Amino acid sequence: MKFLTSLSKKLSSHLTPGMCFLSVIIFALFLIFILPEVSDRSYEVTQTSDSPDGSFFYTPKKLYSVAEQYGESGRSYYIKERFSFDVIWPLVYWFFLTASLTVLYQSITSAKWQLLNLLPFFGILFDYLENLSTSAVMFFYPNKVPVISWTAPFFTSIKWVCIYASFVLIIIGVIWKIILTFRKIVYNVKNR
Q: Which of 112, 130, 131, 166 could form a disulfide with 97 if both were Cys (CB 3.0 to 4.6 A apart)?
């Protein structure tokens, strides 16, 4: 716990509102320009929009079905993307989510609340574990490796829980900041 608290404080000292603004710009550029391009290319190669990464949960049977749909060239492309684009994209969303949570919640004095900025780290960790496990399934297909095919959906679900929870906390933090700003304005107007 001490390590997590120390890591959270270190992030708080380095992630300023300016860094948060930069993370928003980078995140937006990825969403607008890069993700659609990668998605189109993926569809072009695999001839399907099915992907284990995009599902909240799937079964090993579904994962093998996707591997079958992809064909040999699609599986090869999928593996290559997990170790190129999908190494960078998690870093982009991690930077955005972590910077946003840090800036929004750093005024709270409780150390437990400040630990919220670590939630995206767990999202990226499970994203990388998902990439490793789904790539292994694609690599070994048509041979089946039950342990890996069962852990992949678990990693995917945990990843999405961490990411969705981070976005919900950002929304709550923004609403909280708006309320505090509004209260401050009302207080200043009343005391003139």
A: 166
Q: What angle do CA 128, 133, 139 make, to 5 degrees?
A: 120
User: Which range marks the domain in which residue 69 is found?
Assistant: 2-190
Q: Which residue has the tokens 């300023």?
A: 16
Q: Residues 49-97: pLDDT tens digits?
A: 999 988 999 999 999 999 999 999 999 999 999 999 999 999 999 999 9
Cβ contact 137:64 at 8 Å:
yes
Count of structural domains, the chain: 1
Cα–Cα distance, 123 to 97 (Å, whole number): 10
ω into 142 cis (within 30 of 0)? yes
Radius of gyration of the chain (CA): 20
152 in Cβ contact with 129 (< 8 Å):
no
Q: What phi and psi values does residue 99 have, to the nearest 5 degrees?
A: -65, -45
Amino acid identity of 27? F
Closest by CA position to 169, among listed 124, 116, 121, 108: 116
